[in-house]
Amino acid sequence: MAATLPRDAYRPFLWVRRGVPLAGFGAAVVAAAADPARLGWWLLAAAACLAVAWPTFQRRQSYLRHRVAIMRWDGLWTKAFRPLARWMGKEDEWILSFVAWNNFRVREVFESRRASKPLVLLPHCIQMAKCAAPILTSMDKCHQCGLCPVGDVLEATLEKVWDARITNRSHKAYREAREFRPDLIVAVSCTDRLLKGLTKLPEVPAYAIPLHLPHGMCVDTEFSVPHLVAAMDTLVEPKAGTNIQPLHGSVTA
What is the mean predicted confidence (pLDDT) over 90-118? Predict the structure, then answer.
């Protein structure tokens, strides 16, 4: 049975990102009717509110063409409402809602036209902290003991011929992506780094998978490998042969 992607829980972000400017549009129209003396100003305000909401209606190829500007706008909205979400105790949920909205629109693009040159980006913290396997030098150095997700990812990489990278710094991941020039990134990271990555590398469509942090930040983190497999199976054109290209780099900062 083919793996299926989980539903994207993007409604909270969309309610704010689309709902606030549309509410502003409605208020401006009502004000224009009630204050004819300033009709021109109110209509201008209504047009501005519609312009702010318009990117949320762009889908598929239109979204892909304008993705850089759209991601910058969406990122600004996410950051603007982040302090309120933190005050409400919903900071992670707010960021993940933004990530889900991004994933929903990326899915729409690649479910109909699959990616031909994807790149999987993984954080080093999915490796057990006490493990000495030098996976940053080469992922196939993994001992495949089954105690962390790296072995499962390596097995899937070999079987399905993925280009996968494990990095220990965000700037290295960005550099890898820019040098590789993929048409799709499938990235695994914590919520804060997902927000940073989506807004700092908007030119490349990215499907983002959040980490689970049972032991705190950057220590023995976990994620759903079936989710990763489902994303690659759904969004990427299958390949044949062997094509592992592990990252060669230092484990130091």
Answer: 93
**Residue 90: DSSP 8-state:** -
Which residues, 6 or more positions from 246, have their beta carbon under 8 angstroms from its beta carbon? 137, 138, 139, 140, 164, 165, 166
pLDDT band at 27 (very low <50, low <70, confident <90, very high): very high
Whether residue 249 contacts residue 176, with contact meaning beta carbons closer than 8 Å, is answered with no
With b for 16 or more beta-carbon neighbours within 10 A and e for fewer, the 111-129 pattern comes to: eeebbeebbbbbbbbbbbe
The pLDDT of 203-224, averaged and rounded, is 86
Q: What is the largest CA-CA distance in the chain?
A: 75
- Is 1's pLDDT higher than 50? no
Which helix (H) or strand (E) segment holds residue 176: the answer is: helix 170-180
Residue-range domains of the chain with CATH: 1-113 (no CATH), 114-253 (3.40.50)
